[in-house]
Specification:
The protein is built from no helices and eleven strands. The protein has about 110 residues and is an all-beta fold. The mean pLDDT is about 95.
C-alpha cells in the first residue's frame, strides 16, 4: 500500500536534484513559505495532500499525485505560505484520499 518513506519540512526544494534544502522543524514567519518534501512508495493511481495545522486554523493543501505504474518510489512536494498569524507550535500531516494520516511532523513558527 501507499507509504511515506521520507518526509521533510524545509525552506525550499532543489528542482534539479529533487531534494529538500534547509531542512528544519522551526521557521520564522518572515521566511514566507514552508515546503513539505515527500518520498512515497506504493502510490500508483493514488493521491496525497498535506494538511497544515498552524495557529488556530487548519489549511488543507491541494491533492498531489503519489506515484505512477512502473515507479517504485515517487517524490513530490507542497508548500504553505506563512505569516505571523500562524506563529506557535503546529503540525503537518500527509493524508491519503480516504483521510488516513500517513505521516505527521511537528513544526514551530516564530513571529
Amino acid at each position: 500500500g501507499l507509504a511515506v518513506l521520507e518526509a521533510t519540512l524545509c525552506k525550499d526544494v532543489d528542482r534539479e536534484t529533487r531534494k529538500p534544502v534547509g531542512a528544519s522543524d522551526a521557521f520564522r514567519a518572515r521566511d514566507g513559505r514552508i515546503w513539505c518534501f515527500m518520498k512515497l512508495s506504493g502510490g500508483a493511481n493514488r493521491k496525497v495532500r498535506t494538511v497544515w495545522h498552524l495557529g488556530e486554523r487548519t489549511h488543507p493543501g491541494i491533492w498531489l499525485k503519489a506515484g505512477a505504474y512502473g515507479a517504485e518510489t515517487w517524490r513530490t512536494w507542497a508548500y504553505k505560505n506563512i505569516d505571523e498569524t500562524m506563529a506557535g507550535a503546529g503540525r503537518v500531516e500527509i493524508v491519503d484520499e480516504k483521510g488516513l494520516v500517513l505521516h505527521t511532523m511537528p513544526v514551530r513558527i516564530a513571529p
